[in-house]
Amino acid sequence: MRKKHRIGISIGLWVGLYLCWVFLFRDRVFTVTRTLTVQFCYLLFVAANYYAQLYYAIPKLLDRKKYLAFALFLPGAIALSALIRTPLAVWLQQHVFRPGSTAPPFAVVYRDSFLNIFIWTMCLVAIRLAFEKLWSRQYMDSLEKEKNRNELDFLKAQFNPHFLFNSINSIYGSIDRRNGKARDMLLSFSEMLRYQLYECNVDNIVIEKEIQYLRNYIALQQERMEENVQIFLDIPDDIRGFMIAPLMLISFVENAFKYVSSHEDEENIVSVSLRKKNGQLSFRCFNTTEEGSVRNEMERGGIGIVNTRRRLDLQYPGQHNLEITDRGTSYEVLLQLNIEEHVVESRYSRR
Asked: Which of 126, 240, 242, 271 is a Cys-bridge partner for 286, taking CB atoms 3.0 to 4.6 Å apart?
């Protein structure tokens, strides 16, 4: 629910409560003006204590198990409110409602103020907590259902990869041995598929595996690209020994091949490079494009880059810098990630 809607609903509820008090507690001896004033005065102090309990006492004291501080804050805040309201009520009685009349006893007004503020504050807080408990239970139930559905989908999906890899092996065996290019492409595709299915279900993975995945993908694209598309891949051997979120870079590379230009008389380029320096990984992906092709696709609702931005915000908060430049005839992505280098024992790092 949007913030403006929440504020509007809160104001509506307080106004409704105020009008309810006016009609329920109106005394025929009192004028309408006096009733409105008295109840509005109570409304201010009840609301102040309600929000003080809801946004300070409960989360800062009760939820943190500071029970003594919470037990002291609860009556203390209400006692202070009653102490502020009492002289105000006495002054209104003497100078507005009944000028010249005898002031009501301070202790009586204070007692009534304390009890009224205390009872209504506690009732409203209890109602709010009951609703929050209900909303929390509904949210947990929805999460449980989502978890069960995901587990079921995962179990169902277990049958498909085995069938798929068996089919790939059968196709590989059926390809003529003299057609080495087709066999190599199928092996690269099989390795990419295995990486996505079995190794990417973790938060971080060694950079060498991610680089190998990029190499396989670019190699497959290179085979299907026309001859007038130049492909450059620049990844030095020193980029190794640290972890990275899996499949973080591939969306940019996929877009580069998807939107690369196909001019007959001009250069058509896809360039991918990685650099590592001073604890940072620098990634650059560049491609020439048809005029406005990438922008038009984004306007139609492309989500690859959007999802990658979201993943970067979640997995590298404050530790990345992403710059995307669309020049109309070219598209460039510059990404910098803060990395923590450490020795990773794997068949890649021992090469």
From this structure: 271
